[in-house]
Amino acid sequence: MLITFPLLDERALDRARPLLARAPWNDGRDTAGPQAAQAKNNSQMPRDCAEARELSALVLQALDGSAMFLSAALPARVYPPRFNRYTGAANHYGPHVDSAVRFGENGLRVRTDLSCTVFFSDPEAYEGGELVLHAPDGERSVKLPAGHAVLYPATLVHEVRPVTRGARVGCFFWVQSLVRGAEERRLLLEFDQALTVLRQRDGDSPATVALTGTYHNLLRMWSDT
Ligand code: NI
Questions:
Q1: SS3 for 88?
Q2: Would the pTM count as exceeding 0.90?
Q3: Which of 64, 120, 144, 214 could bridge across to 169 with cysteines, CB 3.0–4.6 Å?
């Protein structure tokens, strides 16, 4: 299942833009495995520069405040967001799969259940640069307004099509979910969304309280912390 949602508001984007403009950029192949490195041709912001740390904190704060992200991803661990740029000769990332487990600082290990891309560039500012997901039922092409995010199963082969004009700047990260199975996650999201509608309509009626209990009992049954 693929979910898109607004993540960063104008204020957050206004804070991000000057940081993105003055940040240093390295060859994106530095951090790719041998197979992905053959497909990867973009630029990536060094993880430890001041701009990356500030941008990363800004994205993580927005994720914490996003009901859609929390409900859809049920995050247990988030791999620190990385920032990349597609422009000029370094303009695409061919079809590839992401590693199943990502290792980070201080012994961090994240099983990559979900991938997330946040778009920072306005779609009018560049040509091409679609994120294309190769799903079993066909290809899905994603290009979103600045500040919007797409969350998709990390199990899919995916690519970023060549940017032929302008620059596409974005952020990506992986999520290990409390709920490993995609189908269980989907059911919990549907349950939570329907329950939200019922609660808005009926308040905390005996029925909505009982259904809230059922939601949490399913989450308890399916989650690993
Ligand atoms: Ni990837």
A1: coil
A2: yes
A3: 120
Q: In this model, does residue 122 exceed pLDDT 80?
A: yes
- CA-to-CA dists, residue 31 to 39, 42, 117, angstroms: 12, 11, 17
Distance 68 CA to ligand 1 centre (A): 22
Instruction: Note whether 113 and 74 are within 8 A (CB).
Output: no
Name, in order, each residue with C-beta under 8 angstroms of 109's C-beta and a sequence gap of 6 or more.
101, 102, 103
Return left, alpha or beta for 129; rule: phi > 0 is left, psi -120 to 50 is alpha, else beta: left
Instruction: Report d(CA 113, CA 10) in Å as an integer.
Output: 29
> For the chain, percent helix, then strand, then coil, each to nearest 5?
40, 35, 25
Rounded to the nearest angstrom, the distance between the alpha carbon of 154 and the centre of ligand 1 is 8
Determine the distance separating the centroid of ligand 1 and the alpha carbon of 164, expressed in angstroms: 20
- DSSP for residue 154: T
How many Å lie between the centroid of ligand 1 and the Cα of residue 96?
Answer: 6
pLDDT tens for each residue of 168-217: 999 999 999 999 999 999 999 999 999 999 999 999 999 999 999 999 99
Å from CA of 47 to ligand 1 middle: 17
Distance 67 CA to ligand 1 centre (A): 25
Q: Which residues sit opposite 96 in a β-bridge?
A: 158
